[in-house]
Structures are given as structure tokens and as C-alpha cells.
Amino acid sequence: MRVTFTDDELAFRDEVRAFFHDEMPQDIAEKQRLGVPLEREDFIRFQKSLFHKGWAGFNWPVEYGGTGWTPVQKYIFGVEMAQANAPAIVPFGLGMVGPVIYTFGNDAQKQQFLPDILESNVWWCQGYSEPGAGSDLASLKTRADRVGDHYVVNGTKTWTTLGHWADWIFCLVRTSTDVARRQEGISFLLIDMQTPGVTVTPIITIEGDREVNEIHFENVEVPADNLVGDEGKGWTYGKVLLEHERTGTAGVARTSYRLQNLRRQAERRVRGAEPLANDRNFMRKLAAVEVELKALEFTELRTLAAVAAGKAPGPESSILKFKGTELQQAVDELFVEAAGYYALPYVPAQYALDFPVDERVGEGSETKSSLTYFNYRKASIYGGSNEIQKNIVAKHVLGL
Amino acid sequence: MEFSYTDVQSMLQESIEKFIANDYDFERRQQYAGSDLGHSPEVWSMFAELGWTAVPFAEEDGGFDGGPVEIMVMMQQFGRGLLVEPFLANVVLAGGVLRRAASDEQKERWLQPLIAGELQATLAVAEPQSRYELANVATTATRDGDGWVLNGHKGVVLNGGNAQLVIVPARSSGEQTDRSGITLFAVDATASGITCRDYPTVDGLRAAEVLLDGVRVDAGAVIGDVDGGYNTFEAVVDEATLAICAEAVGIIQVMTEKTVEYSKSRQQFGVPIGSFQALQHRAAILWTEIELAQSLVLKGLKSLDDDAPGEQISRLASAAKAKLSRVAQLATNEAIQMHGGIGMTDVLDMGLYLKRARVLEAQYGDQRYHASRFARLSGY
After folding, report:
1. Which of B30, B134, B156 to mutate: most A Cβ within 10 Å?
2. Rounded to whole angstroms, how far apart are CA atoms B174 and B136?
3. Do B240 and B355 have their domain in common?
4. Do B138 and A271 make contact, defined as CB atoms within 8 angstroms?
């Protein structure tokens, strides 16, 4: 068992570190540092800088333009990206639909879609959940009826993250109701958001932002060529994608980075008062989270090693999802706790680039803590709620 | 031991319940919260006309001689209705200081207009560095002839932007964290040298940073004894702590009721999600915890009602707040989680309850602070 990095890996780490320090767009790094929300174009420019470095397909095989990195390299990349407080890579294209297309798509689809995904020319969003199909995803009702050389799609998808910024959507749709199991008769369809009949309506979430949407399809004509793989096999493809999504949501590196920041914040002395870090009860809470994070970090490495050995991420990816989001939320709560009274002011405007820092309410970015906490209550709900992850462990791992 | 309300208390509860049901629905609440003042002056006048602003004050001061039980009855209903009116800041905080420590002349000047709904007031509880330690007062008061000059920064002052009267604890002697040497000053918010940075809080109420730069007040601004304001300050915040505990109980009760209702109607896998034992157990734990938290609030309340010694009230207020902060965290997280995505949106009012509960969880001390304070006061 080897758990130290080789010289090559250390050199790779330095290269990644240098990229995030010097080569990524510096204005975006500055926005991240100040806590200024990113625009659509910021995400695209950041991802294009990765593309020009040859790193956009960090998770993809070489034959499709990916890096072909070892699990250790991917791990290093993830840690360095978090330590640099770089933006998250928007998962829908590079992390989700890309792997489905290169795994299950035909050659024409690979040629049509993969280069634009790698280069971040096309923004994708995800059409899985429906108003009546959340945890019970297989009960989805959006229909795609085959008419000649196209499908006619009708229905509503919901919780579509950044759907208002998207060019294309990948959807799970029902192509047949005449099936023994509900999971059959579901297909994986790629839809251009500009197609007549597609409308996007905002959903405002509790912290007051528009991040998710409802997407309505009314007699939307989609070329049959946009079906990925076999009709009726979409559930299988979608599940592969969800397992990737779950692995991706562990977020251990980012949570660890935030925990370090919180620790530094707690050690700060504010106007002659004792630093919060002098309260052992508070520091013990941080330490307890770090213990859990270390456990999850090593579990993630074990999963990556299994994937490297040729196995798809299996039910164990459920552990990463539900423990990872629990720890993320635990750190969200600790930030709120550390902010004390300064978790209360609602002053999002002071995080604009041109807002004078000395006029901000609070000493640092304490007033962001509540908004982050509110927003990330979603983490234990999306990607298959944590209840569903526990069901998966009970059923598929323990055989209960 | 009596656990039932008197007729007067029951009537008070019913009239507030009725007011919220008829005149304070979700849309109106949001409209008031989003207005310039952040609450409704008409509603506030109505509170004064109905005598709700007079409840805890002595008859000779123009009050109704009500006690802590009446305040708690009201606060619990205000919690259920997500009220944004500045009851706590005016009646419990500023009114609490005036009721306990003000001279007759001061009461006439400030308490009577407050009761009449004509004066907006507050107590500046915290400073940027103080966290929840009331004695950590860096704002200074320096004698200047007959009067005083105040310098400092009061943080997250509830109702600070609306208040015409801000009661400012300031250090007239001693070190930054000493209990002695704190004096309470009644400060006119329009006095020269005051800057007030007003903002909404995450729950839709209002607070402000109040900066005092060479603010001159006369000797008549001192409420109670010079250097001896701490006991009043602590007693008022202890009572406010129990009051917001009662409000929080109201909030998490509503959240839990609505969550249970939702789990009976939301169908997944062909059945209501409330039929899953995993969720049933969680709902049962939640209900149990809320009942236990409510018991501690009632116990604290009883000590107030019995005029128990200050230290005993402090100890019980801390016990109640420690428990309630933890239960509020559990209840809000569970309510959102069991609702799923829909609980995260502004389609339901669940998010508003969550935000209000979370503000109350932090206000006047979180679980960690009050558990430590309880330990200290209990000799652990």
C-alpha cells in the first residue's frame, strides 16, 4: 500500500498549483477571494483556461480529449483546485453528460457533442427530477413519443440548476409505459433549449437567488438522432451518471479548505476580545469534523483506486454523497456559529466588486455564512436525497 | 403546581391568534417586511390601542400589570405568525430596562410614549467584538461637565434604524470585560455624532450598526446607577432570551405541523412518504424534542413569575436557550429535508420559518454559549 506521492506526482502537484496561482483568469480568482458571485461568462472563461491547458477533460479518457489522469492525479487536481479557492467546474457537461455520451453514445454524437463540451462552448443542464418524481425518480412522466424521425416531448422537469444559462439539456424521458418495471421504458434524450416549445421558469430559493428552474416541454420536436444508446435503457445510463455525480459531490477537498479557513478566522482577534479559538468547545467541534473528513478523504481515495482498477463507481459512491454533504453542512453550520450576531445581517450587495470593503457590515465575510448555510441545505436533497443513499446502502450493499 | 393559563392569558392568546389569522397572513407579512420601515406602523398603532404594548408594565406606569407568562403567550403566537413588528425591541428590551431602572421622570418621558406606540425604542445588546458576553463593553462613557460623552460601536441593534431612543450600555469605568463600570444611557437617535447603518436581517426584520462618535448626553440620560447598569442589562436580556425561546417554540411547532401534514400528502413510490418508518421515527424524535424544549421554557418562565433570584433566572434561561437552540437547529433542518426541494423554495413559507428560527437560535447566545453559561452558573 503506497500512500505517499512519487516525485512525478509532486512535480504534477506543483504544476497544478502554478496553474491556479498564475494562469487561471486573475479577475475570477479575485472575485472568488472577495466572495463576489460569478457570472455565466466567468465560469466559461475559467473552464476555457482549463481547456487551453489540456485539463478540461480531467475525468475523461485520452481518446476523447481527456487527460487520462491516474486517480492520484485527479485527487491532487481536486485538492489544489480547492486550496486555490478556484470556482467549481460546472458539472453538467464535463462531469455528467460527457461521460454518458462517450460511454453510450454513437460516433456521430461523440463528434457532434464532445468537443463543445470540452471547450465549454455549450452549457448543459440536467433534466431528471419532476414535480411528482423526486426521490422516486422512476415515476417520471415526461413523455417522448416517436413520430417518424423525431420524438415529441411533453412534460415538466424541475430543480434544473442554472437551466436559464443552458444551451442544451439532457433528459430522462418516458418512451414507453407498456413495461414490467417502471425503470424500463425510460430513455436518455439530448434537447436543444432553443427548440420551439421549451420554456424556462425561475424557482427562487430561500436565500433569495435564482439558481434552479422549471423547464416545460410542450410538443417539443427532438430529432431521433438525439437519443443516446438504446431506447428504454436510459435508466441504466442515468444511474451511471448519478454515481459519477455522487462521487463528485463528496467535496472533501473543498470542505477541508473551508474548515482551515474557519480555523484561521476563529484565531483572529477582534477589537481586543479573546479569539473564538480560545473556546475549546468550539475548537473541539472543528476537530471532530476534521476527523470525519479524513475518514471520508481516504474512502474517496479507495473509491478512486477501485475505479482505476477498471471498476465503475458502485453503491459505495452513496457513502461519499451522504457523508460528504453532511460534513459540508456541518461546516456551513460552524461558519454560522462563528459569525455570532454577524450571521444575521442580510447585506448581499456588499459583496459586489466595487463595494468599499471598509463599509462592509462585519469584520470579514461573516454575513455570508447564513446565505451559504441556507443554500446548501440543498446538498442533502439533490443527486438522490441522503435518505435514498441510505436506501441504496441498505439494499444493494447490505442486501436488506 | 398550576400549568393552565388564567382566563386573561387565554383571552390574550385567542385575540392574537385571531389577529394573525385575519389580519397578518403570509402576503401581508411579506409586504410589511419589505416596506421601508420593515414593519407596519398601522399594525403597531393597533397593538398600542389594544393595549398589547402595555402588557408587562405596572398599572401606575400606564401598564396592564401583566407578567412574563403573558409575554410568553404573546411571543409564542408571534412566532407562529412570523410577526415582524418590533415588539421585542420596544416592549421587552427597551421597556424592560425602563420598567426596572428608570426614574419616574424618565418613565414619563420615554416609557409612556413607548406604551402609547408613539416612541420606537431599542436596547443595544452587542458590540462587534462582544459575541454573547454582555459585560464585554468597549463603548466608553466619559464625564464631561454635568453630562457624558459616548464613543463606540454597537452591532446588530435590533430595530436600530427605526428607534428614536437607543439604550446604550457604555463603560464608565473598569476594564473591557468587567461587570462593574457599565452604565445604561438613554440616547436620542438623532443626537449629533450618531451614525446608524440600517439593514434587513436574513429573517426580514431590521437591525443596524450604531456608531457613536463623541455623542454628548446630559446627566438625565443615565438610567439607574452610574457604573451599576450590568444587573439590569443582564436581567433584561435573560427575560428577552426566554421570550425568544417562546417565539422559537411557536415557529418550530408550525414547521413540524406543516412537515407532518406534507409527509401525509406527498406521494413517492406509490405511498405517502409519511408511511416510511425512517421518517416516522424522525418526526417522533422531533415532536419529543420540541415538547422537552417547551418544558424548559416554562420552567424558566415560572422562575421569572416567582421573582426568583437573578442568578437562578439566568441559569434557567441558559438551560432553556441551550436546549432550544439545539432543537431549533434540528427542527429546521429536518423540516427542510423532509420537504425535499420544495422546502427550499419561496413557494412555501418553510424557508421564512427556517430563517426566523435560525436568527433566534443565534440571538442572545447559541447552544454552546448557553451550555457553558449554565455549567458556570451551576458550579460545574
Report:
1. B156
2. 11
3. yes
4. yes
B178 contacts on A by Cβ (under 8 Å): none
* Number of other CB atoms surrounding residue A250 within 10 Å: 26
- Distance between alpha carbon A367 and the CA centroid of its chain, in Å? 24
Query: Is residue B36 in some structural domain?
Result: yes
Whether the predicted pLDDT of B118 surpasses 70: yes
Residue A2's pLDDT is 54
Torsion sign over Cα A25, A26, A30, A33? positive
- B1 within a domain of the structure (yes/no): no
- Residues B371 and B324 reside in one and the same domain: yes
Lowest mean pLDDT across A39-48, A300-309, B167-176, B199-208: A300-309
Residue B357 lies in a domain: yes
Q: Is A128 exposed, middle or buried (0-12, 13-18, 19+ CB in 10 A)?
A: buried
- CB atoms A345 and B202 under 8 Å: yes
- Of B119, B153, B173, the residue at which a domain comes to its end is B119
Residues B323 and B304 in one domain: yes
- Report the length, in residues, of chain B: 380
Q: Does A288 touch chain B (CB under 8 A)?
A: no
- Contact (CB, 8 A) for B363 and B75: no
B358 and B236 co-located in one domain? yes
Q: Which own/partner pairs from A286-289 qualify as long-range (CB within 8 Å, at least 24 positions apart)?
A: A286/A259, A286/A262, A286/A334, A289/A259, A289/A327, A289/A330, A289/A331, A289/A334
Measured CA distances, A65 to A43, A59, A68, B151, B303 (Å)? 20, 10, 9, 64, 72
Of B138, B278, B362, the CB nearest to A341: B362
Among candidates B199, B366, B372 on the partner chain, residue whose Cβ is nearest the Cβ of A346: B199
Nearest to A345 among B176, B201, B358 (CB): B201
Q: Is A243 a catalytic residue?
A: no
Query: What residue of A is the nearest CA neighbor of B371?
Result: A281
Say whether both B369 and B285 belong to one domain. yes
Domain count across chain B: 3
Domains within chain A, CATH numbers bracketed: 7-89 (no CATH), 124-233 (2.40.110.10), 249-397 (1.20.140.10)
Residues of A54-71 as b/e, b for ≥16 C-beta within 10 angstroms? ebbbbbbeeebbbbebeb
User: Of B212, B228, B244, which residue constitutes the final position of a domain?
Assistant: B228
Q: What is the mean pLDDT of residues B150-172?
A: 98
ipTM of this complex: 0.96
Q: Which is the catalytic residue, given A214, A231, A245, A290?
A: A245
| Residue A276 touches partner B, C-beta closer than 8 Å | yes
- The CATH number of whichever domain residue B332 belongs to comes to 1.20.140.10
Are residues B249 and B369 located together in one domain of the fold? yes
- Numbers of helices and strands, H then E, in chain B: 13, 10
Using an 8 Å CB-CB cutoff, list chain A residues near B127.
Answer: 271
The Cα–Cα gap between B220 and B272 comes to: 65
Range of the domain at B18: 7-119
Burial class (CB in 10 A: 0-12, 13-18, 19+), B310: middle
Is the minimum CB–CB distance between B247 and chain A shorter than 8 Å? no
The ranges of chain A with pLDDT < 50 are: 1
Flag if B201 and A344 touch (Cβ within 8 Å). yes
Check whether residue B271 and residue B200 sit in a common domain. Answer: no
Residue B40 included in any domain: yes
| Statement: residue B323 has pLDDT above 70 | yes
Q: Are residues B281 and B342 in the same domain?
A: yes
Q: What is the pLDDT of residue A353?
A: 84
